Amino acid sequence: QVHLVESGGGLAQPGGSLRLSCAASGIILEIYSMAWYRQAPGNQRELVAATPSGGSTNYADSVKGRFTISRDNAKNTVYLQMNSLKPEDTAVYYCNVEVRSVYRGSWWGQGTQVTVSS
After folding, report:
1. pLDDT tens across 55-75, in order?
2. Within 10 Å of residue 62's Cβ, how many Cβ atoms?
């Protein structure tokens, strides 16, 4: 009932920037929270940043001060601005939204690769 399309991943040099986008479509009656997770090879998926409804944000300690999550409710889209990228930021990034659709549930994007390397 809900479809997520991610974009914006790719290759960046250390110290560079990338901006990820995730647009939700389908039967969306209300969006409760939007978030970005990442998973590096051999690691578990971890929360990078989240923005519950109401405008608050929270970040993993490893990205505080470098990454910024934002959302455009009119477009059902969440963004992740990533600055001062480090090689350890290399991972597949997934967006996640908690939505009231036909039922309340959580949906995942397909993932987008971010590689930070010189």
Report:
1. 799 999 999 999 999 999 899
2. 13
Q: Do the Cβ atoms of 77 and 71 come closer than 8 Å?
A: yes
Q: How far apart are CA 91 and CA 29, in angstroms?
A: 31
10 exposed, middle or buried (CB, 10 Å; 0-12, 13-18, 19+)? exposed
Max Cα distance, the chain (Å): 46
Q: How far apart are CA 72 and CA 70, in angstroms?
A: 7
- For 90, the 3-state DSSP assignment is coil
Task: Give me the residues paired with residue 77 across strands.
Answer: 23, 72
Backbone φ and ψ for 89, nearest 5 degrees, come out as -80, -5
pLDDT at 54: 78
CA dist., res. 105 & res. 4, Å (int): 13
Q: Which two tokens stand for residue 113?
A: 């690769």
Hey, what are 72's tokens? 């455009």
Q: Classify each residue of 84-99 as buried b or exposed e, where b means 16 or more C-beta atoms within 10 Å of its C-beta.
A: ebeeebbbbbbbbbbb
Residue 109, phi then psi, degrees to nearest 5: -75, 175
